[in-house]
Amino acid sequence: MKTHIKSSDFKTKEMFPGVTRQIIGHDSNLMLVKVSFTKGSIGYKHQHAHQQVSYILSGKFEVNIAGNIEILHAGDAFIAPTNADHEVKCLEDGIIIDSFSPMREDFL
């Protein structure tokens, strides 16, 4: 397990048009991911068995969790419960920091 991580270690992967993902760090129990969005891009509706807490670092997003929709801004956060449908729509260019437990093996 790497204990010190530099931004130059982050590999960027395009997920969808206007959405890129960078794994910041992980071990088997926890993963931290930086997701960058351009205005109008979508993190499409999905669900997973992982616990997720996400922090809006910058921008403005429409966040839909199991049909509960709210507009969130920089400094806000959300929790996507295990197996709950969730989706984000980017209203202003922004970055979301996602944390998952356990780590998302499907991201590697």
Residues in helices, as a percent range: under 10%
Distance between the termini: 14 Å
Cα gyration radius (Å): 13 Å
Uncertain spans, ≥5 residues at pLDDT below 50? Answer: none
Number of helices: 0
What is the overall pLDDT average? 95
What kind of sheet is the major sheet? Answer: 8 strands, antiparallel
Helix and strand succession?
A: EEEEEEEE
**Which class best fits the helix and strand makeup?**
mainly beta
The CATH topology assignment is Jelly Rolls
Total count of strands: 8
Q: What is the CATH C level class, in words?
A: Mainly Beta
Task: Look at the structure and name the CATH superfamily.
Answer: Jelly Rolls
CATH architecture label name: Sandwich
Structural overview:
- The structure is a single chain.
- Helices cover 0% and strands 61% of the residues.
- It is mostly beta strands.
- It has one domain (20-107): Jelly Rolls.
- Strands 1, 2, 3, 4, 5, 6, 7 and 8 form an 8-stranded antiparallel beta sheet that branches.
- A hairpin with a 2-residue loop joins strand 1 and strand 2 (19-26).
- The radius of gyration is 13 Å and the shape is globular.
- The mean pLDDT is 95.
List the keywords:
single chain, 108 residues, mainly beta, Jelly Rolls, eight-stranded antiparallel beta sheet, 8 strands
